[in-house]
Fold this sequence. Notes:
Strand content of chain B: under 5%
Distance between the termini of chain B: 13 Å
Strand order of the largest sheet of chain A: 7-6-8-9-10-14-15
Strand content of chain A: 15-25%
Number of helices of chain B: 13
Shape of chain B: globular
Number of domains of chain B: 1
Number of domains of chain A: 2
Largest interface: A-B, 35 and 37 residues
Oligomer: heterodimer
Number of helices of chain A: 11
Mean pLDDT of chain A: 87
Largest sheet of chain A: 7 strands, mixed
Radius of gyration of chain A: 23 Å
Radius of gyration of chain B: 20 Å
Shape of chain A: elongated
Number of strands of chain B: 0
CATH architecture of the largest domain in chain A: 3-Layer(aba) Sandwich
Low-confidence stretches of chain A: 22-28
Number of strands of chain A: 15
CATH topology of the largest domain in chain A: Rossmann fold
Mean pLDDT of chain B: 90
CATH superfamily of the largest domain in chain A: Response regulator
CATH class of the largest domain in chain A: Alpha Beta
Structural class of chain A: alpha/beta
Amino acid sequence: MKRVLAKLISVCLTLLMVLPMLAGCGSSSEEIIIGSIGPLTGGAATYGNSVKNGMQIAVDEINAAGGINGVKLKLEFMDDENDASKAKTAFENLMDKGMDVLVGCVTSVPSVAINDLVLEEGILQITPSASQKEAAQNPNSFRLCFTDPLQGTTMAEYAYNTLGYRKAAVVYNQDDSYSTGILETFRARFTELGGTVVVEAPFSNTTEDFSAHVTKIQDTDADYVLLPFYNDMAAKFLTAASAKSLALPLIGSDGMDGILNYLQGEDAKLAEGLIYLTPFIASDPDEKVQQFVATYTERHGDAPDQFAADGYDCVYVIKAAMEKAGVTSNDIDNEALVAAMHEITVDGLTGSVSFDENGEPLKGAKFAKIEDGKYVAVQG
Amino acid sequence: MKTRLQRLLPLAGAALLYGVILLLMATKVLPRSYQQMLPTICTYIIMAVSLNLVVGFLGDLSLGHAAFYAVGAYVGGMILRYLTAIPFGVRVIVAIAAAAAVAFVIGGAFLYFVRKLHGDYLAIVTLAFGEFVRSIVKIIPGTGGSAGLTDIPTIAAGAFPIKYIKAFSWSYVIMVISIFLIVNLIRSRHGRAIMAVRDNSIAAASVGINVSRCRIVTFAIAALFAGIAGVLYAANTAAVNPADFDYNVSIEVLVMVVLGGMGNIGGSIIATIILVALPKVLLDAAQYRLLIYAIALIAMMMLNANPRFTAFKRRVSEKTSKFVKSLGRGRD
């Protein structure tokens, strides 16, 4: 009896090892496989899930309309938990599944980690939302979102030229390369234009109380405050700013998107009048945007954020490039496809986008404002 | 007594296994995702076996093994990254030697300062030490701060499958050497001293073992091998980030040791292979992955504690050792 049990266990274990291998070998379908990698679990899970949902909507739309030159698309999304080594495993898994193009990674650190693996394979890579500069440095890698440095420059120009501010106070997260990256280019561009940065107040990942930062700003003659950091910290800053009745205008970077999730009910007033840079605003009256918002809300119950829009746009960018390169099967000429990326212009949810010689997006910035507890597009 | 041939048999087995895996890799029978996983398994085996030295053989609980892993990864990573004048192959060996030395000194120095602590108290201090190392690397110049150290020249260079064959070869050879050294240490006089300290430190002291020194040296040796594993990690992934070494890593390795059986080297190796491979095998189960992983972990722990399974394991190991002995006798 025991011997039978032992044999059974060993057979089961062998099957466990062998079956996934077989599963990995049988990918000879006619579809074009769009692979994508992002965090579906863990701290950054909302980003990955948004991108995945956005991409799925685009893939379904394209397939319903007959695919790309008659070839259907298939989305394979792998979880990386925002972890570099898991992203590599996910990448190899996608290669086993016969991935043709890669949308990803969603976040910066995993994106940088797999860059060279993708370069060796030569397939087209486009990241929807990894904003660190190094995330799209290879000839075959492209980026849909703004880089951190570009955000700094854009926000300096907007504050100086459009809003007419001359003296900036900056609060930034010294532990986060996203925050310091924006600060550096902002400072350079704003001073170049003729403005001055009167105070720079750093904080760290563990900061809970921002009263000292607010006092520091109130001691200067700043026109406005720049907040280049993520929404969770921004909520804490706004609480302190309101307690100390800071009366200056506030401008945030794209990490500010979703701030109202942290400020429920009465607290929403704290963010009133806050302006931030964003590629996508769900309340934008544009017809395409509204159609996307309606489909997304119907499927997932809540309104899409910029990550969903980025994912959606990435799929349409790939479609445009494939049509330009004359792709008619899943046997793709990668060089021609990469070359086509430089020739296309796609009118997407996050604006009209084309790509420069470094694979960086050429597109205008949008600014959103919080009015009556809602995100509203700023015109002009 | 064992003959010299019998002692070398495991090494011959390791060489045979290497040959078989290499063949599977070169012929691409093993899918890419599995090939990519092999160097990671080797790295974690070194981690688990070296932690077993502390937890299983010395009897001290450490929750900060990732600290020495981080030290090795950063020392090794920075040597690989900055000392570009040395040819690459030599540089890897230099990096391993340097990282091992630094981790050894830090591990020893750490236990020297907290040598009065035992049990839960030591566990908490090691936990804090892990977080301490992770924070301090952020402010050392040249480590890349919180963005991490990137562009480390990698042992996994070239086209598929060459890159994974290279990475696996480096990792496997270093792993086999590490295990060989640790097993020999345990079988030596020093190894018996270590286990004597675990079983009864007062009795050990009474027969002339310097208990403090024994603990410090054992901890330093375990740190040394964790440092070597760190270099392999850095050379494999080409990028290290402070976030890669948080306490979860220490806990993960501890789970491998506990699952494999404390004081059981072979068990650590098998448990490591299962625990590293499992999340990968489950990757297709998407959102149920973490759930299945947790359930599998609980099931394995319970199975391991089951007396019938223990008896079964003993029978298998007896048969194997009988077979190995007959093999050795036959050739003698």
